[in-house]
């Protein structure tokens, strides 16, 4: 017995469940990192500064500057919101935005 599904499933319970699952998957919570950009490696190679686009309470992307070690780990935010495109000083001790 081969039961065929109707071509338009938008009104079905299955479609509703899948659509809801994808909607929840794509929702971001405030503070979630939405994207990373503008990587800058320190002169000694021990850290990478970057722009981290985080979600605010309204879901908007807001730039922040963060630093992370080359092997990964937690991103440490170093500046107030709104700064981006970090660059290291020649001695690798300071970051300019």
What would you say this structure looks like, in words?
- The chain is mostly beta strands.
- The protein is 14% helix and 37% strand.
- The mean pLDDT is 82.
What is the β-strand count? 6
Largest sheet: 4 strands, antiparallel
Rounded mean pLDDT score = 82
The main sheet orders its strands as 1-2-3-4
List the helices and strands and how they pair.
Elements: H1 13-26, E1 33-41, E2 48-55, E3 61-69, E4 72-77, E5 87-88, E6 95-96
Antiparallel strand pairs: 1-2, 2-3, 3-4, 5-6
Concise summary:
By secondary structure, this protein is mainly β. Helix content is 14%, strand content 37%.
Key attributes of the depicted protein:
97 residues, mainly beta, four-stranded antiparallel beta sheet, two-stranded antiparallel sheet, 1 helix
């Amino acid at each position: 017995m081969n039961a065929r599904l109707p071509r338009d499933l938008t009104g079905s319970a299955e479609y509703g469940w899948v659509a809801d699952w994808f909607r929840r998957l794509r929702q971001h919570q405030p503070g979630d990192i939405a994207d990373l950009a503008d990587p800058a490696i320190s002169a000694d190679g021990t850290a990478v500064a970057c722009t981290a686009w985080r979600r605010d309470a309204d879901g908007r992307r807001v730039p922040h500057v963060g630093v992370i070690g080359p092997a990964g780990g937690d991103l440490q935010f170093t500046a107030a919101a709104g700064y981006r495109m970090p660059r290291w000083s020649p001695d690798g001790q300071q970051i300019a935005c």
